Amino acid sequence: MLTVDFDRLGLRPGDRVLDMGAGAGRHSFEMYRRGADVIALDQDADELSGVRDLFVAMKEAGEVPEGAEADVKEGDALALPFADGEFDRIVCAEVLEHIAADVEAIKELVRVLRPGGTMAITVPRWLPEVINWKLSADYHNAPGGHIRIYTDHELIDKVTKAGRPNDGTDGDAMIFEGKDYAHGLHSPYWWLKCAVGVNNDKHPLVKAYHHVLVWDIMKTKGWSTLTRGAEKALNPVIGKSMVLYFRKPA
Predict the structure, then answer these.
(1) What is the CATH number of domain 6-125+133-183+239-247?
(2) Where are the domains of the chain?
(3) pTM for the full model?
(4) How does DSSP assign 140-173, residue by residue?
(5) What does 2-61 look like in DSSP terms, one character per residue?
(6) DSSP 92-119
(7) Transmembrane region positions (predicted)?
(8) Which of 110, 149, 214, 245 could form a disulfide with 177 if both were Cys (CB 3.0 to 4.6 A apart)?
């Protein structure tokens, strides 16, 4: 289940790419499959172990182009263990809404992105997220849960200003290049979960809806055309994730 459009990001074989907050590695795997040199960074060592194992399995199965490399790195978003300008592309998917010091995390992302490089940041979209919060306090009041709801204007402002010097002098800001929405089918699913209890996965409606999402992800014949068409229509209206694309001035 990918959120980022890698063609829009400008990903090319041989690019050095950081997947910051990689989690289970969904974006890392696709970038590796496309021939990128991928670093999956996260704080969860157990998740990273699984990501590393799948990197190895992908290479052994011949699923990646010759010369592509991938590795994992345990680290802190507020102090990325990389040199300035080390990456051609950065993906930061569904991470910033969990971080209290989000501006500091954004500055670190900008720091390790090379001049002329591109970055995709995804966060929960404002309207679907507001509905989730109103339906259930348990949805976000959990350890490591969501601590803020972004508007597009707020996040664009934070990212575009992140490249400017701290001393107040003029400097090149990050360039906002566009916005997209994804996972329109997932918003009603989470509204339903919040309404019946976030952890009530055995509720018949929740189970039924979950089956639809699984069919969509697995591209089951027959269902895939129907569900993909529905999601494409819903994304601009209630897409659960907002995707913002940026470029660092050359």
Answers:
(1) 3.40.50.150
(2) 6-125+133-183+239-247
(3) 0.93
(4) TSSTT-------HHHHHHHHHHTTS-TTS---PP
(5) --S-HHHHT--TT-EEEEET-TT-HHHHHHHHTT-EEEEEES-HHHHHHHHHHHHHHHHT
(6) EES-GGG-TTHHHHHHHHHHHEEEEEEE
(7) none
(8) 245
